[in-house]
Task: structure prediction
Amino acid sequence: MTLGFRPIRDDDVAATVELWRRCGLLVAWNDPQRDIAFARSVANAEVIVGDDDGQVVASVMVGHDGHRGWIYYVATDPERRGQGLGKAVMAEAENWLKRRGVPKGELLIRRTNTAVQGFYLAIGWTEEPVVVHAKRFEDTPAIGLATVDTVVTALEMLERPTRPTAPAPAGTPTALIRANPPTVRFYRWLYDGVGTPWTWTARRWLSDAELAEAISDPAVEIYVLHVGGVPAGYGEIDRRHGADAIELAYFGLTPEFIGRGYGRYLLDAVVDLAWSAGPCARLWVHTCDLDHPRALGGYQKAGFQPFRQAVETIRDPRLVGLPLPERRTSGVARDDGDSATVTTLPRPLS
Ligand SMILES: CC(C)(COP(=O)(O)OP(=O)(O)OC[C@H]1O[C@@H](n2cnc3c(N)ncnc32)[C@H](O)[C@@H]1OP(=O)(O)O)[C@@H](O)C(=O)NCCC(=O)NCCS
Result:
């Protein structure tokens, strides 16, 4: 048995909710998946699980509100009660709070759950002479489990473009340097810097280990544009799926450098690298209606042809604190009946 405690991961969620079900912690008015997602999305909360050889055997949700610490979803595997797991997972929560300078923790026990009071008393959590009041807000937006539909347009380029490569804007010295590989910290900074206004969140959901695996793959090329030595944007070429489906997976500038002539230069340069740095039969890119309004047109000007549009559902960006941007009109063409959500484009969009 190798018991350890760590923050919950995506692949623990189902087992954790099942543990809560077996422990009688699920109630109709709380959605456990949403509760987990919400806690994971903020810096001042954590869901900690006890992992015993890959099995979730204990859990606690801990957080603070800038004053007191709060504890929820304390649970241990019913088959493993009385072995110190409850005490151990609570110690993890207590340490989590202490490390953040929180001097006192509080928790609520349902009146129907009288049995558990002995546990908390046994581990030093005393009953307080307080009356708890609560108010449920009926008009809170459904942040958390809510998802957002986006219209995603995929564009492709089947041969190397013959157009002249756009020059770098004159003035400040410009350099395009491959980050080979970038550190996770630098990559997150770049990804958030470029993508935050356009609600890029896919990679925010990855753990550091998952992200490191993706960006350090030799088939993934990340080219960072430097203007006067300052990172100004990047293009990421993903060759992991072979020469027939090379993807310009990410492309963009940080807000300070938009509208200064660097976009066209960077796009042409990265497209040229995609075609010249290895075998390439088809280069494709996708953009959605949350991206910069000129992204679609920019890709077309650079020589990409739209070939597919589909509605995709993404996790609510508000979970990571990003407001929902205004939806742009996406230029959906006709539905050819292939599927309810996929549209094959008869001609390039303009
Ligand atoms: C409450 C719970 C987490 C305790 O887990 P556990 O793994 O049995 O706890 P531990 O073995 O670490 O017990 C720690 C101490 O509490 C004592 N204890 C545990 N349950 C107790 C109970 N119901 N009454 C009195 N004492 C209890 C143990 O005897 C032990 O005391 P010790 O340190 O003096 O030996 C577990 O029973 C559970 O998951 N219950 C269902 C979910 C629940 O009600 N959660 C709380 C919501 S507020």
Remarks:
- The chain has two domains: 3-122, 147-343.
- The chain is about 25% helix and 25% strand.
